[in-house]
Inverse folding.
């Protein structure tokens, strides 16, 4: 087994959670790498959708933005942005949406809007973009984020997008019928919501990660499943495909 | 009927101080040349609408031309935050900036409703999202058949929409291909519109019957500005200049560096520079 | 993922007695072959939705397969009234026909809302129009910002949408070109869908990036039926058979003549006949 | 001056009412002939829109249906039907809409739905189609119909589309801001709404038509303007272009 980074482990674990029949709403960064890794390995027919309007894309390199030309060149079709949000996202056609953000709480609620007070922010973040409706319209949500006390907080400064709300049945009580965050994939572990409380619970540790590390890098008291798995290591093929993808991407984007 | 004129004339005739203007483009086809011309002409107190404000709104905000920003995602795509916008929101430099913040779905629906002549857009949105608390322009209505609660936002009706497109005919019909974003809706929702294009052709006889075309009578002004979307890209003409987006992160980090860069590359330039900027990015036809 | 199968299999697997079915097509691309197959398989008690019910719904109504018709304009295009539908509405022959009547704008918006996953469509409609009195599925809501009263109708959510298109790929992606009507929305609003196509090709690599394409995973069933829209037309393949529309006015004028014609040309035929029917109407490529 | 039929006079009079800058929502039959005659004579840049989605069409022959292939072949662009009704009609972009119907009243309200009672009709007509919203969304409405007691009635069996309602300010009182029926062009005369009462008033008689003929073929007491014009005769050019158009149309449609 070769060496690998925690980011690679996170990407591989996210990729494995995707099925060949999934229709994914892809964001830039880790989700894009995970979705394309899935497509290039076990899920060749997976449908990747970027919110710029490109449906069924198969880029040879990872896009730098959600509207890169290659996404359109390789798409089955490219639709307008109003149509994307109306017919495709709101229409309930997306099985998996990816989210991440500056702050995450234990119920999978996310903040990408401000650090501090909304009207007098310490840091003005980019804002929600597609997230508020991705969070409620996709069949389920995968969250990929690296663990840190700054990012994994007890209380969000601002709720940009809904996860499981205050937990329990709160999400359903708000009239939301989709599953919400069903998986949190970090650089250390895989978390899944407790069936009752909906609080994220560690179900699998990545190689080398300890309970202590996991607990020390979140701003709440981390819960662990009774039976804790060890995340299967990245295979040689997964690593090779992922690294080739990143190498092609780097070559293409520095080529200009 | 569209006037075919210089970009300088188009901006002078259509954009006034205090106007609400949507410079649209979704990564692709961002109208940089038109934004720069607007700054050169000294427009101020603008309300600017855009789903994805990026470098051009960072520049307009940093130059103090913007009173209010209506948006859903303000970032330097693939790079990071918008530093001039942050400086305005966090430190009121060079002036305070009002913001009206939405989600992408709300913004897209608001343009769609504007194009459709409706006063508001209705969609399934904002459930459990805190923007509802801080934006009074988010309300809710009930479906009269099922009782389901649906979000409502006012339609966008900008004074002026500004976009970049591939081609226009001599009559002023405009063709947009590839990632078309909300540009058609922006133009149809606006009272006036300016479209910069890569080239002007005799006709669109070889174009697909269902391609995105704005008929000449829906467009106010067409100006030929080759390279006019740089460092964004124009599908079929030139690629995105990724290095410029990375460079912007450094330029925008410092007020002095920013001002000096703007003087040299925007205020003392003309639209003709854009053709040169894309020369090394041309797509093989 | 779309199944590529025979029309007979597609209808058998997807259309059940009592279903709500939208056979759509706007003058162009009307799915005649699929409607005939549905009649041959003896489906009954159908609720059929269509903006412009014409010959196929006249045939289905005349054969007693339809319980309810949801529509906005029922005519033989360019010719006159629908005589079998009139006989059903005016004389309950061969059975009584429930109708739910809308305007085109309401029907188009209802499909759009169905495709968009909304429970209802909101539009500026029906002002001063008396359908409001006779159709309880027309209601009104107020814009929460301006107070303007807007019409609302329930979204269309048919069990099955049936359309005809130019091409599918071997994977089942479907291409619709020319006058696309409400067909994309009908398929996206439906639980299941059947698409008949003129031909099945390897890929759509040469197709415009913004062409109307339904990805294979949005379509249930694809069946190759060359000529399958006759006497309607398929842009790029064959022209409209205007004589057949004129002839229908005579055939449908008399119950006996109608029944005999249906036996001979529909009930005792197969989908293969359609290729022959368009042989003399082929468009020069 | 050559001879001409009353239908030709009606078509020519309707064509002349159109301006080069107009954007017309065209129906089949008389409106289609009038709009294309205008395009082929004094209004070469007129924009013709058919509700099938074809924008800026310039057919060489008159279409048999509103969705003929030639409309698409010659259009500037062809959009979906939902877009047609949302962005183009409701969006307020149409300056002139044409309507006609089975029954018309003196305020320009039209019935194309039923003769008799709605639930037990004597004659089930095709229904409104686009008319209910064409009637209120276009800048103004031109109505072309041949006069007859059956068609020009004192009271409609059903109000399919709104004209001036009960007259006076009724249309505006219903929240409709567009002008409504501004011209009724028949085989005998041109009628325009009275500025106050909105009742159609004869403003111009076609050659050979008398006040008596006009009055006898409407089911209400016809009003005439104080100053009654005579409709200018069709010019030789107008008749030639119109007849060529009809001849080309006949040849094309019987060609199959």
């Amino acid at each position: 087994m070769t060496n690998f980074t925690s980011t690679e482990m996170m990407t591989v674990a996210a990729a494995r959670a995707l099925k060949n029949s999934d229709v994914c709403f892809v964001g830039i960064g880790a989700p894009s790498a995970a979705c394309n890794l899935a497509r290039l390995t076990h899920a060749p027919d997976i449908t990747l959708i970027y919110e710029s309007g490109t449906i069924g894309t198969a880029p040879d390199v990872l896009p730098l933005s959600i509207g890169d030309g290659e996404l359109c060149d390789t798409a089955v079709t490219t639709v307008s942005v109003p149509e994307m949000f109306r017919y495709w996202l709101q229409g309930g056609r997306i099985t998996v949406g990816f989210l991440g953000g500056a702050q995450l709480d234990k119920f999978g609620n996310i903040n990408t809007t401000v650090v501090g007070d909304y009207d007098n922010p310490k840091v003005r973040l980019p804002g929600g973009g597609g997230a508020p409706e991705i969070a409620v319209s996709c069949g389920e949500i995968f969250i990929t984020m690296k663990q840190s006390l700054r990012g994994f907080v007890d209380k969000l400064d601002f709720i940009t997008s809904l996860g499981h709300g205050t937990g329990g049945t709160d999400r359903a009580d708000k009239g939301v019928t989709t599953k919400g965050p069903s998986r949190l994939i970090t650089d250390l572990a895989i978390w899944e919501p407790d069936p009752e409380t909906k609080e994220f619970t560690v179900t699998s540790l990545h190689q080398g990660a300890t309970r202590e590390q996991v607990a020390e890098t979140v701003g709440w008291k981390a819960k662990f499943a009774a039976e804790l798995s060890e995340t299967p290591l990245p295979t040689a093929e997964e690593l090779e495909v992922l690294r080739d993808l990143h190498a092609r991407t780097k070559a293409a984007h520095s080529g200009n | 009927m569209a006037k075919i004129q210089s970009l300088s004339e188009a901006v002078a005739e259509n954009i006034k101080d205090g106007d609400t203007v949507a410079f649209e483009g979704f990564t692709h086809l961002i109208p940089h040349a038109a934004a720069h011309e607007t700054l050169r002409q000294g427009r101020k107190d603008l309300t600017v609408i855009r789903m994805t404000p990026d470098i051009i709104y960072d520049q307009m905000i940093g130059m103090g031309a913007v009173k209010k920003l209506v948006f859903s995602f303000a970032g330097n795509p693939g790079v990071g935050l918008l530093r001039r916008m942050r400086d305005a929101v966090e430190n009121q430099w060079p002036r305070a900036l009002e913001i009206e913040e939405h989600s992408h779905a709300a913004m897209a629906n608001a343009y769609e409703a504007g194009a459709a002549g409706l006063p508001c857009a209705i969609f399934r949105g904002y459930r459990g999202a805190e923007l509802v608390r801080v934006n009074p322009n988010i309300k809710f209505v009930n479906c009269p058949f099922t009782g389901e609660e649906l979000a409502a936002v006012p339609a966008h009706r900008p004074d002026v929409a500004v976009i970049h497109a591939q081609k226009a005919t001599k009559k002023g019909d405009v063709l947009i291909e590839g990632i078309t974003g909300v540009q058609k809706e922006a133009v149809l929702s606006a009272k006036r519109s300016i479209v910069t294009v890569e080239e002007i052709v005799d006709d669109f006889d070889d174009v697909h019957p269902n391609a995105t075309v704005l008929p000449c009578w829906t467009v106010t002004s067409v100006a030929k500005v080759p390279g006019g979307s740089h460092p964004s890209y124009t599908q079929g003409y030139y690629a995105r200049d990724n290095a410029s987006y990375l460079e912007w992160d450094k330029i925008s980090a410092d007020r002095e560096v920013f001002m000096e860069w703007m003087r040299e590359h925007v205020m003392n330039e003309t639209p003709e520079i854009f053709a040169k900027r894309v020369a090394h990015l041309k797509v093989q036809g």
